[in-house]
From TrEMBL:
Coiled-coil regions listed: none
PANTHER family listed in its UniProt record: RAS-RELATED PROTEIN RAB (PTHR47977)
Native organism: Linum tenue
Record protein name field: Ras-related protein RABH1b
InterPro entries: P-loop_NTPase, Rab, Small_GTP-bd, Small_GTPase
Length: 208
């Protein structure tokens, strides 16, 4: 039996080409801000947020890729142990949409079917620059058997629904193996960065 006090924790990794808005989505969700200078100063590997669902509480660990997009060899170790892969493209960039196939394949290679994958079409506010329709996004998601949603980190559109959707799809506590919980490291600060403790405080001073 799972201990009553154990809070189910899940690692979410954000993948996708550079500049599609991964950091902006995380920032919008965590702080309800749209601030592109944030990532440059933070130096923390992941941010935690607790979500209170109707029937349970889950703790999400949001792992941003800060530049790892360029170092593909680092990606497998980053994906390992993840419960959820959020694969983002920019609806105003067809290339970023096409590249999501590679990201999805990479996640499947590393995690098989033991992972929830969400395809996210971000920047819907760029109405005049849109190159990928919602139908194309939906169709690809169906084809690849992944979830789908469109968002705008800038306008704050569909950001909470994205995370609610993810949380609702997570397995309940009874199916979460205790080994998985023990494997989780809670806060992983980069030693080289002096802003790290400040960043932790900003993230709600979490006792995680
Ligand atoms: N118009 C618009 N711009 C966005 C949106 N999300 C991110 N951006 C911009 O796109 C650029 C890249 O965003 P960023 O979050 O750093 O992308 P990342 O490289 O995937 O983390 C920045 O200039 C952001 O301001 C959005 O929803 N709408
Ligand atoms: Mg980023």
């Amino acid at each position: 039996m799972a201990p009553v006090s154990a809070l189910a924790k899940y690692k979410l990794v954000f993948l996708g080409d550079q500049s599609v808005g991964k950091t902006s989505i995380i920032t919008r969700f965590m702080y309800d801000k749209f601030d592109t200078t944030y990532q440059a100063t933070i130096g923390i590997d992941f941010l935690s947020k607790t979500m209170y669902l109707e029937d349970r509480t889950v703790r999400l660990q949001l792992w941003d890729t800060a530049g790892q997009e360029r170092f593909r060899s680092l990606i497998p170790s980053y994906i390992r142990d993840s419960s959820v892969a959020v694969i983002v493209y920019d609806v105003a960039s067809r290339q970023s949409f096409l590249n999501t196939s590679k990201w999805i394949e990479e996640v499947r290679t590393e995690r098989g079917s033991d992972v929830i994958i969400v395809l996210v079409g971000n920047k819907t506010d760029l109405v005049d620059k849109r190159q990928v329709s919602i139908e194309e996004g939906e169709s690809k998601a169906r084809e690849m058997n992944v979830m789908f949603i469109e968002t705008s980190a800038k306008a704050g559109f569909n950001i909470k629904p994205l995370f609610r959707k993810i949380a609702a799809a997570l397995p309940g506590m009874e199916t979460l193996s205790s080994a998985k919980q023990e494997d989780m490291v809670d806060v992983n600060l980069k030693s080289s960065n002096t802003n790290a403790s400040q960043a932790q405080a900003q993230s709600g001073g979490c006792a995680c």
